[in-house]
TrEMBL record, chain A:
Its main location: membrane. This is Branched-chain amino acid ABC transporter permease. GO terms for biological process: amino acid transport. The keyword Mitochondrion does not apply. InterPro entries: ABC_transp_permease (IPR001851), BCAA_transport_permease (IPR052157). One of its GO terms (cellular component) is plasma membrane. Keywords: Amino-acid transport, Cell membrane, Membrane, Transmembrane, Transmembrane helix, Transport.
Automatic annotation (TrEMBL), chain B:
It is found in: Cell membrane. Keywords: Cell membrane, Membrane, Transmembrane, Transmembrane helix. GO terms for molecular function: branched-chain amino acid transmembrane transporter activity. It comes from Jiella endophytica. It is a multi-pass membrane protein. This is Branched-chain amino acid ABC transporter permease. InterPro entries: ABC_transp_permease, LivM-like. The chain crosses the membrane at residues 7-24, 30-49, 56-76, 82-105, 160-178, 209-233, 245-268, 288-310. GO terms for cellular component: plasma membrane.
Amino acid sequence: MYSADIIIEALLNGLLTGAIYALVALGLTLVYGVLHIINFAHGALLAAAMFAVLFVNQILGLDPYVQIPLLAVIFFGLGYGLQRLVIGPASHGRDENILLVTLGLSIIIENLLLAGFGSDTRSLNTDYSFAVFEVGPYLLGQARVFGAAGALATAALLWLFLSRSDTGKAIRAVAREKIGASLQGISVGHVYAVTFGLGCACLAVAACLLLPTFYVNPRIGSAYVLVAFTIVVLGGMGSIVGAMLGGLIIGVVESMSGLFLGESLGQIGIFLIFILALLFKPTGLFGAKA
Amino acid sequence: MRTLRPYLPVLVLGVLLALAPLFVTSNVVLNFLVFTLTVALAAQGWNLLGGFGGQFSFGHAAFFGTGAYASAIWQMQLGFDAWTGFVAGTLAGALAGLVIGFLSFRAGLRGSYFALVTLAFAEVFRVLANSSEVTGGAAGLLLPLKIGAENLQFADRATFLGFVVALVIVVLLLVQWIRGSRFGAQLVALRENEEAARALGVDVLVVKLKAICLSGAITAAAGVLYLQYFLFIDSGIAYGTWISVEVLLAAIVGGLGTVLGPVVGALALHGVGELAKSLAGGLPGIDLAVYGAVLVVAVAFLPGGLVGIVRRRDRPRPVRDAAPVEGEA
């Protein structure tokens, strides 16, 4: 049995990681809530964003945190274009088709990353990558603390944007009542693409926050996509508060099952939660309806 | 003769594939055919559930791997022979189908939710196989080399190909028969409109369970073939996402809900993949990137798949833009 200190430390680190996971899931749940589609390419796009951070760091020497505005804008544009030019037209408005098209996109992105960067696992070392904050008896990785703070700040910004700005109001209108919104002169296609772009921008921020402590390889997306789906299902599809809380829960579950079940078997905790949530509570803890 | 006519295309395809070894002796081509047809067999399993029944699984690796592991454990840990291992693996796949199907269909999961839950089941199986003793853990299982027909191991690739072709043909004939049967009609009915099928007295849960058991069994049989041919499996091969993706790709590109679609799709995909690989000069992943592009293009432009191009007249009219208003269901 572990001492209480080790367990509490794992709990705290789980919460910090969970905040970043929540940001990844936030993009997914936003897209689901508005477009009612499951974006299977979410993980692959995150992997692409992480490689973009590495690339910019190598070329311009920019610190990952400094890159946040730059990458957020680039990935917003990328997401906007993807939805407008590929996903929307290719799927003919059918649910299964969207799943298949985004699966196809994820395969393309993943393998182009493989072709471009090779299969090596990479990481980005900064001054604070291995530094820790000592909080009482507990050691917390500095990058994780910064990451969690950044994730919470981004979520707050997104919430403000959705509740205060005109575009945000249009997004919420489309999410609630597509036809009614379009009768008010809102361009549904544009709002869909903006929402998808916002989802991708969340990923870009998450990538910048992840890289100082997490490694990346072209196949990493499939690991994150399942984590993100689990959070979104647990929190309730489309619920932003749910995604934040779900992220924290999953971060803790991952850290605990890693501690108690070991590195290899530990991954099972998340998948089991995912299956159980889908089977018994598909509306999630905070979702209104499935 | 009339009742046998629908089976004709399958038999012609079977003869063509069976004659292939007479014309090609290159091991590369024979390997290609064995592997591609193994995928095609697994894809036909997927197609039964996904194409005919409209239940898209993203985790058919759960069945492929269960077949492979069950047969390997049957032979190595329990000491039985390979032929009964083949049966055991296939039955294990059906059982896995029953369990996954019972849990998810009873909970009413469909559409994207069903796809995601199957994916999660496959991942759970992968993690378990990767960390448990009986499956050889991360090192996997290496089936001892014992060449001989009684061990389902053939020194000659052409003979193995013959076995694979025979199995593919048997399954295609079975699917053709199902297609014309009452069960097949019920399956298509629930794909087109589950509520209407239920209203007409179709026991939706039972039909779905039958379909996923059969589907699991067929895909598991492909897993056993993989094991017997390569004599090695580990959790990443047996339960990896690659096979889940390949089977749905082959079925969709070939033609959803058609009998020949998965075979045509698997041959076309792997052909294009090999071509892309040789053109790109060994750039890793390029064949898979092409698969992804083919999937997007197939969904966008080929609702009937490759088979649908040839037989435009009997394919169901694609329901383009027919979804009324999203989010109201």
